[in-house]
Design brief:
The chain has 3 helices and 8 strands; from the N terminus they run H-E-H-E-E-E-E-E-E-E-H. The protein is an alpha+beta fold and 242 residues long. Helix 1 runs parallel beside helix 3. The longest helix has 27 residues.
Amino acid sequence: SEAKDALIGYAASSTIRPGQLPCPDTDNDGLAEAPDGNGCPSGNVGRLPWKTLGLDDPRDDVGERLWYAVSTNFTRNPGLCGSCPLNSDTKGTLTVYQDSTATTLTNEAVAVLLSPGLALGGQIRDPANANNPVNYLDTAAGISNATPSANPPLAPLPSFIKAQQSASYNDRLTVIDTSQLMPVVEQRVARRVLERLEDYRWAIGAYPWADCSDGSSDVPPDYKNRGRIPIITALPANWNGP
């Protein structure tokens, strides 16, 4: 729960773009790997980047660090991908099943947090194998939490599974979807917009006219006091005016 709250807080306060999530930590140093225009080149499954999130190295009940998977469209570097919008209509691309592919918990997960528990079967957790998720995350009903892009083979989206504890499966999963993430992001964005509108009113003595079509304040004789925020140009004075 603490890690989940930290991820949502990170996304809401992102200065890159509100809603942006960190890439996983794939070398176990606690830091998120750098994204590029396509997402996380080091992979979308790794450990939770606890240092990046400002946490105190959260671990599960057997002392293992938490693992983390994230939807690509919430990690792309906007400076490298051109136009990659992230807004209230953006959906996560991770699928999470319950016990088998017959029951889907969600196919729009933004992120999945995983507690690996004790090593099972042939999992090896020595330093040489410490960064390979197959030594920590399990498989159930043919769905591997360690290699989600390959399971099931015909699935268009990365898939994870939440299953009953057994001799071959002891992962525990927590899911973040857009219904949990975006309302927090929306509130942060709304506060920032309100601050800019108040700055405008303080400088001009009035709020800008609303936009009803193209991102700019409507012009006379069609002044509107209800519509969208005029994000491109504003009247009675432009944003960079007096």
